[in-house]
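HOLO CASE FILE
Compound: G4M
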Amino acid sequence: DKVKVIPLVSESGVLKDYASIRKIRRISVAAPSLGGNELAYVTDCIRTNWISSQGKYVREFEAKFSEYHDGYKALAVSNGTVALHLALVALGIGEGDEVIVPDLTFAASINAILYTGATPVLADVDADSWNIDPEVIERLITPRTKAIMPVHLYGQPCDMQPIIEIAGAHNLLIVEDAAEALGSLYQSRPVGTFGDVATFSFFGNKTITTGEGGMVIFRDEAAYERAAVLRDHGMSKTKRYWHNEVGFNYRLTNLQAAIGVAQMERMDEFVDAKRRIAGLYNEELTKSAHFVLPLGEEVGSKNSYWLYTFLVKADSPFSRDELIAFLAANGIESRPVFYPLHEMPPYTQYGKASELSRSIAISKTGISLPSSPILEKEEVKFICERILYYAA
Amino acid sequence: DKVKVIPLVSESGVLKDYASIRKIRRISVAAPSLGGNELAYVTDCIRTNWISSQGKYVREFEAKFSEYHDGYKALAVSNGTVALHLALVALGIGEGDEVIVPDLTFAASINAILYTGATPVLADVDADSWNIDPEVIERLITPRTKAIMPVHLYGQPCDMQPIIEIAGAHNLLIVEDAAEALGSLYQSRPVGTFGDVATFSFFGNKTITTGEGGMVIFRDEAAYERAAVLRDHGMSKTKRYWHNEVGFNYRLTNLQAAIGVAQMERMDEFVDAKRRIAGLYNEELTKSAHFVLPLGEEVGSKNSYWLYTFLVKADSPFSRDELIAFLAANGIESRPVFYPLHEMPPYTQYGKASELSRSIAISKTGISLPSSPILEKEEVKFICERILYYAA
Ligand SMILES: Cc1ncc(COP(=O)(O)O)c(CN[C@H]2[C@H](O)[C@H](O)[C@@H](OP(=O)(O)OP(=O)(O)OC[C@H]3O[C@@H](n4cnc5c(=O)[nH]c(N)nc54)[C@H](O)[C@@H]3O)O[C@@H]2C)c1O
Ligand SMILES: Cc1ncc(COP(=O)(O)O)c(CN[C@H]2[C@H](O)[C@H](O)[C@@H](OP(=O)(O)OP(=O)(O)OC[C@H]3O[C@@H](n4cnc5c(=O)[nH]c(N)nc54)[C@H](O)[C@@H]3O)O[C@@H]2C)c1O
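Model generated. Tokens follow.
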């Protein structure tokens, strides 16, 4: 049984075959690169005594982010989950409203809808892009539908054109969950600039990181202004400690924003690195007949390959979980694709298995590989070698 | 009219009388002191490449906090508001429950109750301590009452003994909002160790800061364990991406926790400084008959004087707001006491003005003075001199 065989790694974690090359560390699925101006800017925060959510880096981070995103107004927040919540509340989504969301996404997407009191409606995904299927959206629309939440999964841009048309025809809002897709393009424009609002995550495993962090970008100035107040406890900007609304504390610190600014300076470099890594994976993994590789890019589209993800064919002699176990035993961290939301206790009522078969299939067979920009080419080759050995 | 007279400060912000001493900066109501190990620990995070909510400083910060708080289990979170929300959810408080909360507090206290779907019930405060009045609590209890939320305002410990007795008699939970009272003692023990759960804030103006940040401490191990899962998206600790509950992202970064650890090392020093400053204010301001100074300490109690706060008597020749304006014109930042919650649009339905008269009176007349541990004695004296000049 191949799963139990750990052929190349000794007890001490030294690669036997590769021992002459170097010792390997455990290869993690994601790790940030903090070798630019991060330390300098953080040091500046501490030396100038400005570390809270007040301070110049917050504004600079927002400005840089806005500039990259076609001038959409940007608000930095504590993370990608509260970004979604703030976006929904600022658009006025709440009890009585329905929001259409893909069944295959990280739970934060649906949780944010539930926080507002709105009802999520789970849509199946496209078999090839693994993103929400526009044809399915159309069928799920009811008089209560208020918004569509496309999620650009693993960096793959959603097919926004039909979604925009559906939203236009039915007068629906679009909330793009771009947590995993900073730097991805669609029709030659950054994802996040197709909806009324879009959100991003800067957790430690994301394309750029602030440790934890998030951003909301707004098409509409009024929604942006409202969100700015909601982010700061709903406190009036002119009358101290006066609250006209129930707000939140979703502020990002100057300290984290300082790192964000340094990371934005290197964003293109990170996306290039991830795309290079994805290219290497594609080149090697195509050699096995057991895998379905990520969908190629349409004209004008660009996949930022946040995490390089592929499927193990249902009829292959080993399962996705066996492959994960084999890789782990070889010191290589990987991730399964998310569970279909409708299978988990808090979400079962929002979708029917019979209508979510593609989500189910992809969830069972999908695996994400190490994709950090600090990965070395040699490490990627080692990972591929291990996978091909296992699949042979 | 004294308010319009700006006698001592020139256009350039140079104190005329004091010009020979030094230029003054604008004196802010709070500013952190980051001159200890903050930079060293943050640098360590970046150099070791661990800045997210994973990393050793988060655990160390929690351990130090727990140790200070009689071994209550501690969870670091993104800020003091989400700390309250997490505490309430972990205790199972939600729709159909009533929570008794003082009318005189920062809005985050009541907002957190509203997030859970529970109903806040506003209690009047004690005329002298400005904290929730235990006798009033008793009168507000109904069969739906689930918890009491005492808030230790401005560092003044609440009178916990009667609250504990009431809670015991009626089988109620106690949630201490200690956002403003780290380092305060009651019956010789730290506030936060009298309830089922307690929360703290580490915003830039707090006794210790992490920029933004918060902590929840639990008496009960099971509530702590539940909260740890809820803090991390409700994700199972053993089955990756599996969610048994709707959770949140309330994680604190390693970066912020690193600062928290350095701040904890100096917490006693900060509290000592704040108490010295309060002593100076008391000594000087007692010279005017127009003020009501903060309540003295009972045996075993210690006020950490987060912000030194006093009242302008209702019959004095000037109002609190006039004093604030005069101080601002002299380069001295101050803060009004919070508005009574029941006066603001989102909260009017949770209390009646006729039953909240002490809250109303204190709110109108209370003012908080600069209380940062980095204030110089000379600055405190200057502030007092200005106030006494104005009040003369
Ligand atoms: C579609 C969508 N919508 C919304 C959100 C919500 O965003 P947010 O988490 O609220 O910001 C998200 C974010 N989902 C993330 C969440 O942030 C979640 O917490 C995360 O789950 P995970 O796979 O369990 O993540 P992990 O194991 O904690 O970290 C992944 C790898 O990154 C490494 N890593 C994380 N932080 C650091 C760090 O500071 N340093 C180093 N060296 N490595 C780090 C870890 O060691 C792992 O190897 O991954 C999920 C996919 C999303 O995907
Ligand atoms: C009873 C109670 N319960 C819950 C909470 C919620 O906690 P949290 O805010 O979610 O962590 C709180 C926290 N309430 C705070 C909130 O954190 C709120 O945001 C804050 O309102 P504010 O008075 O408008 O605060 P500010 O003007 O933003 O900051 C106060 C001073 O501190 C200074 N300051 C803040 N951060 C920094 C910094 O990084 N550097 C320097 N030098 N000064 C700083 C500012 O310049 C001001 O002079 O003060 C309120 C009293 C609470 O009091």
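CASE NOTES: The CA atoms of residues 293 and 310 of chain B lie 5 Å apart. The two ends of chain B are 13 Å apart (CA to CA).
CLOSED: yes
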